[in-house]
Specification:
With about 300 residues, the protein is α/β, with parallel strands linked by helices. It has a domain at about 5-190. Helix content is about 50%, strand content about 15%. The protein has helices at about 5-15, 15-25, 90-100, 130-140, 160-165, 170-185, 195-210, 210-215, 215-225, 230-280, 285-290, 295-300; strands at about 40, 45-50, 50-55, 60-65, 70-80, 110-120, 150-155. β6, α4 and β7 (about 150-155) form a beta-alpha-beta unit. α6 packs parallel to α7 (about 195-210).
Length: about 300
């Protein structure tokens, strides 16, 4: 699992963020889920294939429990995507199927549902269901022998301002960022206080591809910076400093190259001078031997 995948998991794993996502995206702003109702669920499941035991891992999984009885109501999985995955329904079926398999001994099985949070700027053009993945192979089959399985994909970059305003957790700032970047190519940060600074910056680094979000983490932690407008100011400063450092490095490299070239030229001129003094070689022959131009050789006085 790549580092970006790990970074993307962290923010959604917080119960206040997961509950907020469910309330806004699934419940259209109704506050039906509270952070206290969410408990950690295992993200790892195993399956046997070719006689070998394999394991698969969700990004985030949460049990939703009844506050009075602590009984599990449902299990919600969250998958974070920065790119479109044409086989996403197959992945989700694998995760959900494993969760259902683990309930075989449950007296009252609970529902399992997965939500795909897609942060890319392109629309999700891949299938939203199983039949979309296998349609060509099933075209000749009657509907009575076809199974289907729908996945829930939320295109974060295409949320409306009304939806963004519904968020009460740090997820608001991530949604705000990807929406503005898609529409305006620029980002005008708001000034709200961020609770999970480290996780927000790591997620923004993952979805934007900009490492500066992570580079400023030690600085903002030390200084207690916790608003997006203040952190974006640090991003600008960091980018400018890196540009200056790159300019200095390139200048030093250019200077070293020029110095080396001058040294090689002087060495060739010294050899040519010695040849003109001590041999009867023609200027043309000396130029060929030393890789100097004929004009450079002729200009040497001995």
């Amino acid at each position: 699992m790549g580092a970006k995948d790990v970074s993307k998991k962290i923010l959604v794993a917080y119960s206040d963020v997961a509950a907020d996502i469910l309330n806004v995206l699934v419940c259209n702003g109704q506050r039906l889920f509270e952070p206290e109702m969410l408990q950690e669920a295992s993200v790892v499941s195993q399956y046997k294939m070719d006689g070998k035991l394999h394991h698969q891992e969700r990004d985030v999984a949460k049990f939703v429990v009844d506050k009075a009885t602590n009984a599990i109501i449902t299990c919600c999985g969250f998958e974070n995507q920065t790119k479109v995955d044409s086989k996403m329904p197959l992945r989700v079926i694998g995760y959900d199927g494993a969760s259902y398999h683990n309930q075989q001994n449950e007296a009252e099985p609970y529902e399992v549902v997965t939500f795909v949070l897609y942060f890319g700027e392109r629309r999700w053009y891949a299938p939203h269901n199983l039949q979309g993945c296998i349609k060509r192979r099933c075209d000749k089959l009657p509907d009575t022998v076809r199974n289907d399985y729908k996945i829930n994909v939320y295109e974060i970059a295409y949320l409306t301002q009304e939806q963004i305003d519904m968020f009460q957790s740090d997820f608001k700032y991530v949604a705000e960022y990807v929406v503005q970047k898609r529409i305006n190519r620029e980002y005008q940060p708001s000034s709200g206080v961020i609770k999970h600074v480290d996780a927000v910056l790591k997620l923004l680094s993952a979805v934007s591809g900009n490492p500066d979000f992570e580079l400023i983490i030690p600085e903002v932690k030390e200084e207690g910076v916790n608003t997006m407008d203040a952190m974006m100011a640090r991003i600008v400063t960091t980018a400018e400093a890196r540009g200056e450092e790159r300019g200095r490095a390139e200048g030093e490299k250019y200077g070293e190259a020029r110095g080396e070239a001058r040294g090689m030229l002087q060495k060739a001129l010294d050899i040519a001078t010695n040849l003109k003094r001590s041999t009867n070689m023609s200027d043309e022959a000396i130029a060929e031997v030393t890789s100097l131009t004929l004009e450079q050789v002729k200009a040497i006085s001995v």
